[in-house]
Amino acid sequence: MNVYKFGGASVKDADSIKNVVNVLRTSGYNNTVIVVSAMGNTTNELEEIVNSYFVNNNYSDCIEKIRKNHFEILSQLFDYKENIFTIINKYFSDLYTFLKKNKSQNYNFIYDQIVSFGELISSQIVSNYLNKSGIINTWIDIRDYIKTDNTYREGKVIWKLTEKNFENFDTSKVYVTQGFLAADDNYFSVTLGREGSDYSAAIIAYCLQAEKMIIWKDVPGVMNADPKYFKEAQLLKFISYEETIELSFYGASVIHPKTIQPLQQKEIPLNVRSFIYPEKKGTIIKKGATIDPLIPCFILKKDIHLLTISSRDFSFMQEKNLSYIFNKLSVLNIKVTMLNIAAVSISLCVEDKYNNLSKLIEELEIFFKLNIIKNVSLYTIRHSNAEIQHKLKSNKNVLLEQLVKNTYQVVINDSL
Ligand SMILES: Nc1ncnc2c1ncn2[C@@H]1O[C@H](COP(=O)(O)OP(=O)(O)O)[C@@H](O)[C@H]1O
Ligand SMILES: N[C@@H](CC(=O)OP(=O)(O)O)C(=O)O
């Protein structure tokens, strides 16, 4: 069995969906589970519905905008008589029904019930279009298979149950299903964290002991920097699982950080390839691979916040203080991307995906003195040297830097 993942960029419009057919014909698609994300920007647009629902209950305009986009795409791919129009209309009426009947005030729960429509709709469109193009496949609802606890927006996979659900899976067919989604034991939708479709594909690959997994991207593969920001970025032909975990953990957004470990555990090779040039080999991540070419890898994370924390009672930054601080970070789901501990202070770079920073500050200020610099940039370089570090820092306002093994990190305040 193979697992392919097509992200939002690869299914963003009618031409892109037509290109998926081309990619599958070029690469082969026997015995394959095809995992699809929501089209283009749909997840962000669905997030607007959630916000409107909470602010003033005035969500119809947002829904109609999404409906219009999707129906424009449908009209370019199908004849009006085809059943897919009824299927997609039903999802939009289910969305309205949910919003009208919902009694819960739990933001994260509501978020997941709404945002999940993006992948349900896109996977139906892709599945129907592939069938129409002769790539015969079965659409499956991944919520029947991937089970999580009820940590809405960041579901924790219940691995034993999920593996059991895949036990009698017929591995001789082609399937299309949703990335990003799972269900709790009440069958409510739970999402796996933003950009979590790569992780979904890895969960499926793990459970089916897949031969390989391919992620199709708008870039040639994993590069030594994001080509959007670094014009001279080069393709990495091979990388180890460990190196990929490091790159994605520090923010190389080409792969979701949770993707690699399930693959590594079952030694399933991962190929990251271009959906624009599907005949090219891209990057291979597999057991025994070492980074090739061995060149410095740059990761830039913007909108990071630098917190420097010291105690009010002159105590050192030791176990008790650290445990209090990290407990708060964990409860508020704030990710630490750099950590520097000194005797009387600790500096943290944090990423505030869920808008919990002000709550964290409020809770830490009870016991600690805080210095906060918001919206700084964190550069991480793997395999760097003194010359590169010097070049990166020159004429910049450096707030903090550290070198640990192969990883050099520097925090820069761009606003000065
Ligand atoms: N090291 C890197 N190598 C390649 N692409 C990278 C890297 N770091 C960040 N990217 C960005 O990742 C993007 C592809 O990932 P993403 O947007 O999540 O795709 P999708 O949503 O289609 O899965 C590229 O367009 C590129 O700008
Ligand atoms: N649609 C979800 C899940 C996802 O992984 O999307 P993509 O594969 O386009 O990054 C999101 O935007 O977060």
From TrEMBL:
EC number of this enzyme: 2.7.2.4
Q: Which UniProt keywords apply?
A: Amino-acid biosynthesis, ATP-binding, Kinase, Nucleotide-binding, Transferase
Name the pathway. Amino-acid biosynthesis; L-threonine biosynthesis; L-threonine from L-aspartate: step 1/5; Amino-acid biosynthesis; L-methionine biosynthesis via de novo pathway; L-homoserine from L-aspartate: step 1/3; Amino-acid biosynthesis; L-lysine biosynthesis via DAP pathway; (S)-tetrahydrodipicolinate from L-aspartate: step 1/4
Q: Which domain of life is it from?
A: Bacteria
Checking SUPFAM superfamilies in the record gives: ACT-like (SSF55021), Carbamate kinase-like (SSF53633)
Pfam families on file: AA_kinase (PF00696)
Q: Give GO cellular component annotations, separated by semicolons.
A: cytosol
Q: Name one GO biological process term.
A: threonine biosynthetic process
Q: Does the keyword ATP-binding apply?
A: yes
- Provide the binding site for ATP: K5, F6, G7, G8
Q: Which residues bind substrate?
A: T43, E119
Domain Aspartate/glutamate/uridylate kinase, by residue range, is 2-273
Name the catalysed reactions. Answer: L-aspartate + ATP = 4-phospho-L-aspartate + ADP
Cross-referenced Gene3D superfamilies? 3.30.70.260, Acetylglutamate kinase-like, Aspartokinase, catalytic domain
GO molecular-function terms, A-Z:
aspartate kinase activity; ATP binding
Q: Which family does it belong to?
A: Belongs to the aspartokinase family.
NCBIfam families listed in its UniProt record: asp_kinases
- Name of the protein: Aspartokinase
